[in-house]
Amino acid sequence: MLVFTDDQYQSKDQTETLLKALSCADILLIVAITDQESVKWIQTEYKSLPNIVCFASSPNLVNKLGGSYVQNEISGYLFGKTFGISQSENK
């Protein structure tokens, strides 16, 4: 697992490292990305990744599982909605 901050795309060297690392990735986990420049960069660079999961991020970033877009929900759990598990069953 590699961790990058949302401002690393601004450095050419860091961008190359990030793109190389993610070229062989199966999943991109996005946490708390709200800066619009970062959002645009992510949208441009990671269209081809089959699995993208976003938490506490811009609503313009979308979740993808197996290449299919998963609708963002205001409330509830992403995986619960996807796999039919309700919040009341988890308590």
Account of the protein in words:
This protein is of the alpha+beta class. The chain has one domain (8-90). The chain is built from four helices and four strands, in the order H-E-H-E-E-E-H-H. It has helices at residues 12-23, 36-45, 78-83, 87-90, and strands at 28-31, 52-55, 63-65, 68-70. It has a two-stranded parallel ribbon. Strands 3-4 form a two-stranded antiparallel ribbon. Strand 3 and strand 4 form a beta hairpin. The longest helix has 12 residues, at 12-23. It is globular. The protein starts with 11 loop residues before the first helix and ends with a helix. GO terms for molecular function: violaxanthin de-epoxidase activity.
Helical content stands at 25-40%
Number of helices: 4
Strand content: 15-25%
- Mean pLDDT across the residues is 78
How would you spell out the order of helices and strands?
A: HEHEEEHH
Count of discrete domains: 1
Low-confidence sequence ranges:
86-91
Q: Compute the CA-based radius of gyration.
A: 14 Å
Q: Profile the largest sheet.
A: 2 strands, parallel
The spatial strand order of the largest sheet comes to 1-2
Rounded to the nearest angstrom, the distance between the terminal CA atoms is 30 Å
